[in-house]
Amino acid sequence: MASRYDRAITVFSPDGHLFQVEYAQEAVKKGSTAVGIRGTDIVVLGVEKKSVAKLQDERTVRKICALDDHVCMAFAGLTADARVVINRARVECQSHKLTVEDPVTVEYITRFIATLKQRYTQSNGRRPFGISALIVGFDDDGIPRLYQTDPSGTYHAWKANAIGRSAKTVREFLEKNYTEDAIANDNEAIKLAIRALLEVVQSGGKNIELAIIRRNQPLKMFSAKEIELQVTEIEKEKEEAEKKKSKKTT
Amino acid sequence: MNSGAWEEVGCAKLWNEWCRTTDTTHLSPAKSFCMFYHLKSNPSVVLCQCNCYVAEDQQYQWLEKVFGSCPKKNMQVMILTCRHVTDYKTSESTSSLHSPFLKALKTQNFKEPPCCPLLEQPNIVHDLPAAVLSYCQVWKIPAVLYLCYTDVMKLDLITVEAFRPILSSRSLKGLVKNIPQSTEILKKLMTTNEIQSNIYT
InterPro entries from the entry (chain B) (predicted)? Predict the structure, then answer.
């Protein structure tokens, strides 16, 4: 039945599905995992780095991109679609700044990206964008924000979320571990993001990329060394927790 | 196959429109399409690795050539194959399917219980694996076919791991060595086969 209604995306199936949009969400699951966490004074974006070919320049394979000084996003899905969306968003950020002399709010740019995506689900001859995005940043009022968009053009605010391959596993981990203690300070929020990624990343710290934005500070990308430090700390904490557990049982 | 435990004993060459080379007379064994190996420690265990598409009109001849000269008594056949999960027909919602998953089909003479649920109707098996199973059914050879439904187009570690339950079946138990580094070896094999794809990030 599905094959009759997925040729042109402007066609609804008899039971109300837009199959192309649903297939686009499958394309998102082919991208590597990205996780976003909203702390009290920090927002964290962590991604699983894709393995890069030997001769490829690593710097050109980036999943975390700044849209403006105070907003950045991570995506999962089709690389080329992401590039187009990011370019449009960046232009819109500057255009907004020049027109109204204020930087965009995180919600404004998320709505812009979501509207762009929705437009492509409602015109003929075009297919939806095959990406989901996690957009983080601080507004002028100093409140941290995390939004997620998906190929259908919907966007929602989240406290913590994951997209891409194994997103379900990471989200379940976050649901269990996102507590007031876990985001009590910046370092804890960073650790939570790394712990969430370690659940699904296969080779540990060297395949993780992390970016944070602190209030009134620009985007900071973590170096491989800094990530390794965090990973070793996490593993130490894990060992100590295991020791305590085994002591309790004996 | 170059672990040293397997020895090449033969190959089956064929050509059809799906083959990538047109010159079958000058094919070196490495380029041949169906390789047969036997286990050095137990020569009665034969493995066939089929890398090509065997067309429907060639399947019977292939089977006759391969099985024709084998004594059919005391022979047991196990077939491993893959299919994309979009081919799997079920009344359940597709979001509840956890691919990759394994399904089995067996001949009447295969008395052992298979390691996974049987393939339900209306799903069917295609191509050479189906031909081999049918042949085994006709000649009353105990045979089992394990079909892995996966959601990737290229073989990857998770799909190969889906076949793991087979290693604990009675017929293979005697051959399986319990190596603790088996996951590491598998990972290495899979990463060398991965062709870099930049479409998805």
Answer: Proteasome_assmbl_chp_1
Q: Are B94 and B151 in contact (CB under 8 A)?
A: no
Q: A149 at the B interface (CB within 8 A)?
A: no
CA distance B51 to chain A (A): 26
- Structure token pair of residue B187: 């990972």
> Rounded mean pLDDT of B182-196?
66
Judged by CB atoms closer than 8 Å, whether chains meet at A51 and B201 is answered as no
Mean pLDDT of B120-148: 92
What span, in angstroms and rounded, lies between the C-alpha atoms of A49 and B101? 27
> Are A76 and B194 a contacting pair at CB < 8 A?
no
Domain limits of chain B? 1-62, 71-200
CA distances from B182 to A18, A143, B8, B164 (A): 43, 49, 23, 11
- Residue A53 touches chain B, beta carbons under 8 Å: yes
Say if B168 is an interface residue toward chain A (CB within 8 Å): no
A75/B196 CB distance under 8 A:
no
Cα A24 to its chain centre, rounded Å, is 17
Provide ipTM, 2 decimals. Answer: 0.75
Degrees, nearest 5: CA angle A40-A46-A48: 165
> Residue A11 contacts by C-beta under 8 Å, 6 or more apart in sequence?
A5
Measure B152 CA to nearest chain A CA, in Å: 9
From residue A116, how far is each of A90, A103, A147, A153 by CA, in Å? Answer: 13, 20, 15, 7
Instruction: Compute the nearest-CA separation of B182 from chain A (Å).
Output: 16
Report yes or no: A51 at the B interface, CB cutoff 8 Å: yes
B72 burial via Cβ count (<10 Å: 0-12, 13-18, 19+): exposed
What percentage of chain A has pLDDT greater than the value 90?
Answer: 67
**Cβ distance of A61 and B201 shorter than 8 Å:** yes
pTM value is 0.69
Strand partners, A135: A73, A147
Token pair listed for A82: 């992401």
